[in-house]
Amino acid sequence: MPAAITDLFDNASPAIGPPGLAYAPDIITAAEEQALLAGLAGIEVTPFRFQGWLGKRLTASFGWRYDFDTARFDPADPIPDFLLPLREKAAGFAGLYRDDLVQALVVRYDPGAGIGWHRDRPLFEHVVGISLEAPATLRLRRRRERGFDRTALPLAPRSIYHLSGEVRHGWEHSIAAMAVRRWSVTFRSLSEKGLAAVAR
Ligand SMILES: O=C(O)CCC(=O)C(=O)O
Ligand SMILES: [Fe+2]
């Protein structure tokens, strides 16, 4: 394990390992990564939109789409077949049923693109992310009375992380812009709120 991850989960310093954060390298092989990248190259990704702004990162939603421009939550195209084995692995890693992971978000970060501090929308519950092509750093912070608690998780290509519980609800995360292209595939389950929204 890289030192930073060992530190994050070092029992001697539990304060810096937010509960609910899990990580594993090499969830897929290099050959599987290449096959996924070939599949992703055939997907139409469009600039993330937020209240009239166009973000630098390019995204595609499957299963369900949350539109940040309109705050609407709508059905989207089904998760493509070539992503289903990856969803199976994500569910196994997170201890979920594969059918719980009803959304797949594909993100392409070209050089200079990142994602700012945020919590994922409350319509979602579990967040399981796989990194492809290049490494990145998942930064985490939690507001304190003064300032923030901070930590960071290096994300190797072909690795997986799971955000649940405290780290998912009580902490924000972000990814700094990088110099090289990275892809991520994030699978999410619905929260009680999300399940109620889709039942309407
Ligand atoms: O690229 C990633 O791994 C993180 C994406 C993310 O945080 C999000 O889309 O909410
Ligand atoms: Fe996120």
Automatic annotation (TrEMBL):
It holds the Pfam family 2OG-FeII_Oxy_2. InterPro entries: AlkB-like (IPR027450), AlkB-like_sf (IPR037151), ALKBH4 (IPR032857), Oxoglu/Fe-dep_dioxygenase_dom (IPR005123). Keywords: Dioxygenase, Oxidoreductase. GO terms for molecular function: dioxygenase activity. Residues 100-191 form the Fe2OG dioxygenase domain. PANTHER family: 2-OXOGLUTARATE AND FE-DEPENDENT OXYGENASE FAMILY PROTEIN, OXYGENASE-RELATED. This is Alpha-ketoglutarate-dependent dioxygenase AlkB. It comes from Sphingomonas oligophenolica.
